[in-house]
Design a protein that fits this description.
The complex is a heterodimer. By secondary structure, chain A is an all-beta fold. In chain B, the strands form two sheets. In chain B, strands 2, 4, 5, 6, 9, 10 and 11 form a seven-stranded mixed sheet that branches. Chain B has a four-stranded antiparallel sheet with strand order 1-3-8-7, with no helix packed on it. Chain B is globular, with a radius of gyration of 13 Å. Classes of the chains: A mainly beta, B mainly beta. Chains A and B meet through strand 5, strand 6, strand 10 and strand 11 of A and strand 4, strand 5, strand 9 and strand 10 of B.
Chain lengths: 111, 111
């Protein structure tokens, strides 16, 4: 069965330092991969998506993710964390409507 | 576009009562999903529809849960009878094919 694994349940960084949220997916012939962000008491918002075009995908709020087929990874990064980035982040894969989500990574940003 | 609209935003009910959650997807989206989110289990896919037809309901926890999509612009998730362990945030999402747009969720509390 297809799956998505987020390797860290909680990541804590200081404001202004880089962010790395890790995601691995089970191998598939043509995955569509996504990152979503969920702020407290809100629904999930799409950050960025990979759909077999450029391997480096840029999203909103300065986030980007790189698709690495050899590592079956789709890690989310940001060069400099902001306090407003504190939220929960979900990696997801989708194929013909069947969306599968990872367990989520809670990002804390310290002043 | 108003996005995915869910109602009610909050619901508090007594154990044993029937609960109906409602969702209006984005017009033109062929897929509709119902998710449940709890601290313990994270984001779980309950059921999804394609063109108003249920495709996969393997995530529905038990017979007390049922979902319908009578037309392209409306879906319901019903719990009868409700139990305290059903307390969670229920999200509806819709998608044209891959990435999903989420509603703001219904926070259900069963006492």
């Amino acid at each position: 069965a297809q799956s998505v694994t987020q390797l860290d349940s909680h990541v804590s960084v200081s404001e202004g330092t880089p962010v790395l949220l890790r995601c691995n997916y089970s191998s598939s012939y043509s995955p569509s991969l996504f990152w979503y962000v969920q702020h407290p008491n809100k629904g999930l918002q799409l950050l960025l998506k990979y759909t077999s075009a450029a391997t480096l995908v840029k999203g909103i709020n300065g986030f980007e993710a790189e698709f690495k087929k050899s590592e079956t990874s789709f890690h989310l990064t940001k060069p400099s964390a902001h306090m407003s980035d504190a939220a929960e982040y979900f990696c997801s894969r989708g194929s013909q409507g069947n969306l599968i989500f990872g367990k989520g990574t809670k990002l804390s940003v310290k002043p | 576009d108003a996005g995915v609209i869910q109602s009610p935003r909050h619901e508090v009910t007594e154990m044993g009562q029937e609960v109906t959650l409602r969702c209006k997807p984005i017009s033109g989206h062929d897929y509709l999903f119902w998710y449940r989110q709890t601290m313990m289990r994270g984001l779980e896919l309950l059921i999804y529809f394609n063109n108003n037809v249920p495709i996969d309901d393997s995530g529905m926890p038990e017979d007390r849960f049922s979902a319908k999509m009578p037309n392209a612009s409306f879906s319901t998730l019903k719990i009868q009878p409700s139990e305290p362990r059903d307390s969670a945030v229920y999200f509806c999402a819709s998608s044209p094919s891959r990435e999903a747009s989420f509603g703001s969720g219904t926070r259900l509390t069963v006492v």
